[in-house]
Fold this protein.
Amino acid sequence: MHSLSSVISLAALLALVSHGSASPIAADAAPLPPKPGHVFLDCSNAERVAITEALADVAKLAEHAVTTLTHTDYKKNNGYTHYFKDGDHDNALKGFEAVTKEGVRYNFHCVPKNECPVGSFAHTDPTPESFAVKPHVKGIRDITVCAQFLNDPRTKRKLPTNVQETKAYCEHKESKKLHDFEIGGHTLLHEITHLDTYGLVAGLPQEQEGAKPPVPAFEYHGTVDWKGITTAGNARTLKTSKAKVRPETYQNAESLAAAATEMLVMEICDLKNIDL
């Protein structure tokens, strides 16, 4: 939130236009390149297609976020300021840059609805690749994709690639909420940032997850879901939270995913703000 596989992601469960001014985005942005060991486990052809298309949108989201933070007045962009503080820029930029880097490795494991937490589209194993406590083995970690990923509008939806699609995507834009614009790439970007390899590439600090039998304590570098909540509203709250124990904004998965989605949607649909 997001058998051929010998790795079950148990630890992941713990971490669990109307105005004609819209701008279509390039249709030829390639999906994230296959990485060594990047495979689909137990996935139907329809699931493979949906995940591959969503990965193409992950690349667009991340690359647009990098462009926004490096070549625009990002401090005036509500998609950025809803989620990040003034001093977060450099770390947020590193976070978006890391999403598409080669060192971030993962497999996709597709499972039926009854094998996923209620309301979940996907979940990720956050343990390091060296973690070998059963049922884990050393190796590339899984992003587990639930059957709901193919059926819910928030994950079935893709970024528009031409004028006609853009018009439909942005129709009634002023009254739409963020969830009306969400796409499968939003969910996968969120999940990718939970990976330990992502955190290492992004330069996130090492943290520790306490023991929750049968899984012992483990150290990790990926993002978290603050308070166990994966909503954009919770991510916006984190920015101004005074809680004594809290992650930095760029250590929260949905802060990155929601900001990337908002910044790109506001450009595509010529918006200055998106409500929740």
About this structure: The beta strands are 40-41, 107-111, 122-124, 142-146, 207-209, 218-220. Residues 1-30 have pLDDT under 50 and may be disordered. The chain is about 40% helix and 10% strand. The longest helix spans residues 45-71.
